[in-house]
Specification:
This protein is of the alpha+beta class and 138 residues long. The chain contains four helices and four strands, in the order H-H-H-H-E-E-E-E.
Length: 138
């Protein structure tokens, strides 16, 4: 579409003052709806499709809502519940991705996690938090 097309201008005018954010809760609702639809293909259950459609409707209702501050508060409340569940997995994923290039150590005094690049042989590591030094093979 051209940037100055009338349809795009009307859509922008209609969306002005609406929430319009694909935030954490909306992504969760959409992914859960997609998962329920896929499961319903194998189970052949109509109520799963109905629940999925309701989740998509709620997601779009939030997307087009004019109550921006309320939707932000709802998303923050959801994140308070959701992030403690997801955070250990994201940390593990981060460490797995970093494992090939870095080696992780813990300081024996303050238990600070230290990341050192691999393939440097024996190195003296200084803890950035407490200043404790120790030898390690990287």
């Amino acid at each position: 579409m051209k940037p100055n097309s009338k349809l795009l201008q009307r859509l922008q005018l209609w969306m002005r003052g609406r929430y319009g954010q694909n935030d954490t809760l909306n992504r969760f609702l959409n992914n859960l709806a997609l998962l329920l639809i896929i499961i319903s293909l194998f189970i052949r259950s109509g109520w799963l499709v109905l629940v999925a459609v309701l989740l998509i409707i709620i997601s779009y209702w939030r997307l087009f809502s004019k109550q921006i501050y309320r939707q932000v508060a709802i998303n923050r409340g959801f994140q308070r519940l959701w992030l403690p569940i997801v955070q250990p997995f994201s940390q593990l994923s981060y460490q797995v991705k970093q494992h090939r290039q870095y080696r992780f150590f813990r300081c024996s005094q303050c238990h600070q996690r230290i990341r050192i690049p691999r393939h440097h042989g024996h190195v003296r590591i200084t803890c950035p938090q407490c200043g404790h030094q120790f030898e390690a093979k990287v």
